[in-house]
Specification:
The protein has helices at residues 29-41, 52-60, 79-89, 106-114, 127-159, 169-186, 200-207, 209-226, 250-265, 294-311; strands at residues 21-25, 45-49, 67-71, 96-101, 119-122, 190-197, 232-235, 240-246, 280-287, 317-320, 335-336. By secondary structure, it is of the alpha/beta class. It folds into two domains: 13-157, Rossmann fold (3-Layer(aba) Sandwich), CATH 3.40.50.2300; 169-336, Alpha-Beta Plaits (2-Layer Sandwich), CATH 3.30.70.270. The strands form two sheets. Strands 7-8-6-9-10-11 form a six-stranded mixed beta sheet, sandwiched between helices. Strands 2-1-3-4-5 form a five-stranded parallel beta sheet, with helices on both faces. It binds magnesium ion (MG).
Length: 341
Amino acid sequence: MEPNGAIQSVRLSSELGDSLPVLVAEDNPIFQSMLKSMLTKWGYAVRMAHNGLEAWEAMQAPDAPRLAVLDWMMPYMDGVEVCRRIRAVAREPYVYVLLLTAKTESADLVEGMEAGADDYLTKPFNAQELRVRLRAGRRILDLQEQLMQAREALRVQATHDALTSLLNRGRVLEILHGEIARSERELRPLSVLMVDLDHFKRINDTRGHQAGDEVLREASRRMKSAMREYDSPGRYGGEEFLIVLPGCAARDGYAQAERVREAFAREPFPAGPEPVAVTCSIGVSSRDVCTAEDADSLIREADEALYAAKHNGRNRVAEFARQESSTPNSELANLASFSRA
Ligand SMILES: [Mg+2]
């Protein structure tokens, strides 16, 4: 199941106070101690690497700094190669790389920048210049993180229903297609449930839309709590929900549907000043193994089973029974609906 509406929060480097971790890779002991004492004084948490290989290893750690000051000429691996490797893995969040170089020829600098360095400084350098360039790097990192947060918020918005924070229709259908492909590939069963709240219009009409919204949110919570972690419930329409159950054959799909039905019927829903009894009807359709064409037919069958559940008195689960041996002239004739007391 996807993270439901939870926007992963990323801490900006400015929120880390002054203790932003920075990797300093330098092989010359004099520059090592100079850089370390300067950056520490400016408030950075310095991690020192003494050659290119150490630098590359440090940058592969899960908690690797996002700011790196790399000397160009180092034993085992030069700074440009470290930079090239950092860019090749293209991880997020972005790593800001400042190259230190004693080289002054412009062709060399082009090589460094083309390897993916963000900035460079020629040795010997002015301390204040290094300080402001690092600050510029931090600003870039902050902007990049704000962008990532905005993108994550957009992703959640685009894939989730605003009212219930369940998956939206588009996303749950995408997941259904993905699970059908997986069922075909791994020869695993798949079930889908079509859940519809009984007499929902009555709640809206008698108690108002706010109470109706409260019921929809509570319905989503109960559905989710009745699900396994890898099930995908989504809001399909107004008061209709589609649930994809990977790995569930007909019997398990039916049992899952019963759990959802019971979770609704067990106790009344909060809906404004007075709680209200809410039930749901559920149609189940299943495949032992899917084929690519099954997306439409699974939904149609679940819909027809849902119709039968409604027709037989609501607050019940019905499953679509496919007769493999006979020619299905009328699919409705194949509906076996299981009434529950
Ligand atoms: Mg060097």
